[in-house]
Amino acid sequence: MSVWDGLVGQRHVIATLSAAARGEGMTHAWLFTGPPGSGRSNAAVAFAAALQCLDAGCGHCDECLSVLAGSHPDVTVKRTEKVNISVDDARRWVRDASLLPVRNRWQVIVVEDADRLHERANNALLKAIEEPGHKTVWILCAPQPDDVLPTIRSRSRRVTLATPSPEQVTGFLRERIGVEPGLAAHAARASQGHIGLARALATQEDTRNRRRETVTLPTRLTSLGACMTAAANLVDIANQEAASRTRATVERETADLETLYGEDRRSKASRSYRAAEADLKRNQKAREKRVVLDVVDRSLMDVLSVLRDVLMLQTGAGQPLVNDEQRVALAELARATTPEETLRKVDAVYAAREQMLEFNVPPLLAMESMMVALRVPSRAAR
Prior knowledge:
The protein has 382 residues and is α/β, with parallel strands linked by helices. The chain has three domains: 150 residues, P-loop containing nucleotide triphosphate hydrolases (Rossmann fold, 3-Layer(aba) Sandwich); 38 residues; 162 residues, no CATH class. It contains 17 helices and five strands. Helix 8 packs across helix 9 and helix 9 crosses helix 10. The longest helix has 46 residues. The mean pLDDT is 91.
């Protein structure tokens, strides 16, 4: 057992980080990049544990166990529940990083989703990376190197994670979680190497049902009405999941605020209470918006997997289909359309994704536009 056991298909990364934890090529700033689901955050936390461990990541000492449990005083994982990381958040993190480690090894700051840093937040972080503390280590996680400032990239050592193969994900699900072989293989194929999604598909029936509904969309969009209905249903599902995932946190935060002020203080300091309440609701709304975008984005990746399969059939590429259980319907769509039409649909999905994530277009509007672009031509609908 070691801290690296949870990293699937990342042998080259483990070798690099293990050597650094032992002092070979160690530096104060790291940039972990890789596609969604490749395990960037898991790799960052494992590396943080290895840095605190006297044996470079044994996996069973107090240092390793406390880091992996999220309770180590010198390892902080910074994440945001908002769409973007604000400059105020970044400045707080910089102040935290300036503290000396309690246990006299490293003060490690892991920043998940560094691609969400606001421009001013990037600049605030840059100064801390340019002038790090003697025992401070920054680990930034992002999908691509271009997602962070060039000046931050140039001052960080890059570690690139790969997408695990279906066979590697299947083995992980069977050996570590105990999933039966058929379901493990299906989850590995459907997740396209996304470890977190593979785990959810293997263990949660509602996740499998949601995906099954989504991947049939491209073959069912035979009319304008069907396109509008599909868009509304997809966004409704996202809103419901977001409300479900944030409900407990919202209730706890609201109760904490009321306890903090109490009945008497709320009446005597109503202006202060109202300001705190408004700030809390603003943060809760931003958190729910991010969850909605994440859920819709996950659905878009499922739609892209279908279009990828159609293109494989149209071009005769001979690659295994992600959605092999839909082979008959996909073959019909492939015969009735052209590769050029399929590529235009792929572009439409990416355009919708960009509209939501980059330009703040309401999800329903972006989904309606995309669904119309995905509409099945009349010759395929017959």
